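User: Predict the structure for this protein chain, please.
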Amino acid sequence: MLRGKLMQISFKKLKNEHRSMKGQATVEFMSTYGFMFLVLGIAIFAIFILTTYTNSIQDTTCNTFSNVACNFVEYYPNTTYGYGVLQLSIENGQSTPINITQISSNVSGTNGFGSCAPSFLYPAQESLCKIIFNNSNFGSQVTSGVYSINLGYCNSGVTSLNKTSCMYNSSIYGGSFSVYPANQEITPFVSIVGQLPSNKQTISELSEPLLPYNYTVVQNGDFVGFGSGNTLSYALGNGAYLGNTYFGLTTVSYPGILSSLNNENIACSSPYNSLLSMSYTSFYMYESNTITIDTYTNNAIQVYYKNSKWQSWVPAFSSSWSSTSGVTEYTSSNLIPQGSYQLAVVQENSCGSSVQALRISGIYS
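Assistant: Here is the predicted structure, written as structure tokens:
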């Protein structure tokens, strides 16, 4: 009887130990392989998402078939008014200046034509090209196409490397691109900064926004303005002007690629180190409208605009080319017809700190 009880107790003990060992083995198994199951589960879920999600972001690429490089591409379809805008930022990779006469593109059998600002490029200088398509329906996924640039490259001596004196050899360059359609059009500015000769503090107002040939090119770069509805604006400066508010924007420094414009030590007496900056952009008006151009600055400034079909640039202001003791506002309103436009902001920094704030209203119609 006692022996039976002892055997029963031993059996229960053995059974409990077996359960304990089994439980421990289960814990050890989960500890050892549980993480692997977790990783495997995540991998399976990721594969499921990637194979079933149909609106993934596509890569944006812009390739060139020549030494005129393509740095940036953007495509914006305006489905409301039925047109598309293709923007390309190109750079002159040649050792001589080039003059762009036309740019075009083909996407899915549809041709578009446009213009570049600036059209005359020194070596390593950028230009913003805008091509307009009468059809915006290229699909919601990646858009691929080709572009072609008609230009003349300067084949002249060192003393004739400017737009008017160059002897041009005609050529056609091109490239290809793949771009995901954007929900909103952005408007970048491409800039070139030149330094005046050391014996000059100021110059007369230019007849067109083109860097004089005897200037030293200091920097090329770009920045993006703030777009809201039919308005484009920015506020850039240095020194005591940083933090000031113009057009609802806080003044910030120029981007690093244009860091020379952050120089507060522009000499007010000889020898001079005055700077001349030119910032170009473009916009498309699908119908005629009145545009208003406003600017705040303490330096000589002029804003030029030009329809791609016009021969000459139009200055926006009548008396803005002079430095002032404080910040001055200039404004101009003009009715312009439908079409593709180039715009250039030219400013001379001739003494001390500077500020440049710009607002354009009524663009895009």
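The chain has a mean pLDDT of 83.
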